[in-house]
Specification:
heterodimer; A: MetI-like fold; 11 helices; B: mainly alpha; about 80% helix; globular
Amino acid sequence: MITNIAKTFLKAPRSAQLGFIIIAINLFALAFAPALAPFTETEIIGKVWEPGIWAMDCSEEAIELHGACWSQLNDDRMDGKAWLGTDHIGRDLFTRLLYGARNTISIALVITGLSFLVGMTFGFLAATMRGWVDQIISRMVDILMAFPTLIFALIVLSVAGTSIPVLIVVIALLDSTRVFRLSRAVAMDITVMEFVEVARVRGEKLMWVMWREILPSTLPPLVAEFGLRFCFVFLFISALSFLGLGLQPPTADWGSMVKENSGAISFGVYNPLIPAAAIAFLTIGINLVVDWFLRKAAGLREEY
Amino acid sequence: MDSLTILIVKRLAFGLLTLFVISVLILLGVEMLPGDLAQALLGQQATQESLAAIRLELGLDQPLHVRYFDWLGNILQWDLGTSLANRREVADLIGTRLANTLFLASNAAIIAVPLSIFLGMLAALYRDSLFDKIISMTTLMTISVPEFLVAYILIVFLSVEFSIFPSMADWSSNAGFWERLYAVFLPVMTLVLVVVAHMMRLTRAAIINVLTRPYIETAQLKGMKRSWVIMYHALPNALAPIINVVVINLAYLVVGVVVVEVVFVYPGLGQLMVDSVSKRDLPVVQASGLIFASTYVMLNLTADILSIIANPRLRHPM
């Protein structure tokens, strides 16, 4: 298993390797946030918007203020300092970033998983049953897709209030329409193949046909889609949090961290750019891997 | 009726149905959600009298279909109700803000559309060149980056480090056209950067898709000039997907303004809607949601109809 992963990794092009490393870093942060973080999620450790060590010059005043500068990064004096700076109420930005990875990524994973469960079930169902079942589901999806996602989410949140379960259900439902489209289209091509016909004639149940005959053949495009949908969901939650309607404080979350600290920018303190860059970093990494995966799944045919 | 008209009529009917369903969902979605709306708005401490008063004000005592048609009739007369937060007419609140949002979105569209079609065609013609690769990489970057990061990077460089453009896109009420244009420069740039990449990528794909067709090869083999092949054979067939891409991105722009308006504290409809969502000011949310959603639906409808009309095979059926 591990040697297989290593082999795939070494054979992949540079861009995909970079993507894998980015994803690995994020998953590592997600798994070990409490162990890696120098402080706790809500601990106030310093002044408001202290610049990080990266932005600090090594002048005497700076050293006096922070007790260290970037050239002393491995020094003992760095213990207990915020080396990415502090946020709008003096919490450690690095700690919040680690916990933010944990909160934002895991919620995005739950949403994408739920969206695939719903979207694929209905997509395969529509493709296998055809006829009026397909018609009804497809027309309902058409109408849902005609609704701009962000606006729909805003309306629901204004009525139901912002809570994590509401966020998960709303975004998963909206996103599952896209998954439905793809899984239906892919499964349509599979259901006309002989082996599915054989399974049906053999008298297999609908669930069995969907699960054992159709699913395995549709996996590659769906796996790639999972990456892309995850990126979309992740950016979407970040945008909602940025608007103040996603995860609520004091939970650390990358989108809300940008929003809370955005005032610092006009003072020339660029701390809020760090969580924003973290969001971009992860989505770029996933896109690089998905790009490579799609090209590989297409059998290295000429790519447009 | 020929097949083209039938297609268009079908599409129009579906568009109208979508608009109807959206309006029903926006008004009655309130009903389907759990809990009592009046209670949710006023909180646990609300007295029976105030609960009854707000139910009466929102018309919660009326049956559903009556409320729907009342609401729809009022909306069609531009009577959007009163805001729960500050008792002002929603139509007054929305009026200037809608104009501001359209000003922002149309400026972005005027720059983004020609730019992305031009770049997309160049990328398709010089496929696999360095230029093409740079474009694909930039596209990947801008698709992955959240809008607010693009916005803040622009603010950092053009507003904080070099004070060329203002980071707050607001103006006094007597500001002239050029002054306003100057004030919205950064938000417009943000929207352009976000949209161009996507439009360009799809334009490129549409043209390349057409260039690989057999009839293009035939034209080339009979010795036609490359520029003529593109003008007479490739472009008319690529037009439908390109128009589609453009209008869909315009629809995206209308919704994408929400985040950008919040970043730049721009007095537009998106900002108003976000504020009203956190205040749970339902009449404002419903009205602005309806405006956003119907603009989006109409633009998508236009895209589909234009691409039906622009498709040469549908216009000249065998």
